Structures are given as structure tokens and as C-alpha cells.
Amino acid sequence: MVESSLWHPVALVGDVAQAPVAVRLLEQPVVVWRDAAGAVQAFADQCPHRGARLSLGRVTPQGQLECPYHGWQFAAGGRCTHVPALPAFVPPPGHCARAFEAREAHGLVWVRMEQGSAALPAFVAEGDARLRKLNCGPYDVAASAPRIIENFLDMSHFGFVHEGWLGSRDVPAIDDYRVEATPTGLLATGCKAWQPQSNLHSTAPAQVEYTYEVTAPYAAVLTKVPEAGTTAVDGWRESIALFICPITPVRSRVWFRLAVADFDSPDEKLQAFQHTIFTQDQPVLESQTPQCLPLDLRAELHTAADKASSAYRRFLRQSGITFGVC
Q1: Cα dihedral 296, 300, 306, 307 in deg (nearest 10)
Q2: Rounded to two decimals, what is the model's pTM?
């Protein structure tokens, strides 16, 4: 499955501390934990001995993951190092947990279940010291990851789903914009929207210019710059990444990575604005049928205002994505 060779976010970095953490990815239970060096590890959440959930166990003082059933201990990489019932026994190489690759990036723990050439989804703003970074979420959503990405790329819903915030039903028109294919998905530029309150610091309605980029099948980034003089912060700009863990074909866990020109507001205040916007989206997303995203462009109707989402569907089809689509 193509999706198994992609990197997926599974937890906030700060949530993986002293104890093992159970997560679910691509319909499979996974346990993430930290070894003695503090490096994040990811195993299938199943002891190879008798199938108990390793996430119910503990991390020993020596930095081994201990099964809750018979106390078998596993080192980084999955090798079994100790079987308490047989203290003198040296476990052979075949006595091991199934290990996956794991990394930390963008404030999240990422897991790749099979070897692949795909890189972690990029977030250019991560390296910009002029922007403050923080995460918002997670949100558990009864919708497929592709439906959620497509909604993120869509501007014509602003005046209806986000009326009084990102749009107005009295000004619903979407100007033409450009979409080009990229190796990771697509880039949409020249996207403009009239918004009553485009961000936390808005002082007046503004014409806002957006750039959208799909950086992986289940990841996307937007940047937005409002008209000068319409915010309380001079030179306001922001970049928002959407990272999704596909739990099942129709259930997803969602995080936003915010990069904003604001080093003064409390985290909670910045997160509250994003929370307001996404919780307006969520009930609509969960109402869509089919829950999976149709890749046949004849299955749903399209207009010129849907250029980005149509390009995204073509990208998924060309990439061989099958999880969360129909």
C-alpha cells in the first residue's frame, strides 16, 4: 500500500514522555515511546510472544519497553533483550517486536510503516525565526483525510461556513487563480478572498491573498497576507500547516501547525482562533457523503472555483493513493 511508505503524524511530541502511548495509523495499532537516549520509537502494538498490547506496559528505568503480560523487554529497534521467566535465556534475533521508523518534526511524532522515498511533509515557515510556531489540536474527525485536505484548499465555502470571520455570503465571488502541479501535489497562487476578520488581530475587513500548497497526500500548507493597515500587528503574516493522521479510511486525527508574526499573545489565544475556524468546518466535513473522496471527477460536480480541489484529486489518483478515497 502506497500510504504505508509515507510519513504520518501520530502524536504531539510533548505527549510522548515517560509512558508508552497507544495510537492508531492506517487501521493498525501502534505504540510510540522513548528509549534511554530519549529517542522516539514506534512498534506495532502487539507483543510477538502472546499478542498483548505493548502500550499497556511500561518503559523500564533502563529504557526498554516492557510487555504488561509476561514482562518481555524490547530495546530500540525491536530486539527482545530479556525474558523474565528464563533469566539465563539469550533471545535470538527472531524474538523481536515489529518496529517502524519514527521521527520528530513540526512539534509532532511521525511514523513510517514501510521503507519509502517520500520525505516528511515540508513546512518552509518552520525555519523562519520571524514567525512563532505552535500546534493546535488534535481533532478527531469522522471524515477521510482527503476530504479534510480538500476542504482546506477550498475558498468558496468561506462566506457560508465561516460567515463573519473568513467571508460573507454577500461577497461570495472567487476571482480566478493559478494552479500548477508539483512533485508533492500542487501549488495554488493568486488566491484572494474578502474577509471580515481574517486573523486574531484584524481591525478591519480586508482583501486577503492566499497561497496553498499540497506537500504530501495528507498534508497541506496555506500562507495568508491581509491588506496593509487592516491588522493591529504591523506586517502581519501567517502560515498554517495541516497535518493529518489517517486512522481509518473515514476517520482522521488532525493537527494544525501555526507560524505567526506574534510573539506576545498567549498560546491559548492563538489556538482559540484556529479552533473556532476548524470547529465550523468539522460538522460540514462529517456530513459529506460519501465520506471517502471520489477520485472520478464525474462523481461530483465541479466549477472553475474548484480548480485546486480537482487538481488534488488528480494528484491522488496519479500517486496511487487508495486509503480514504473511492
Answers
A1: 20
A2: 0.96
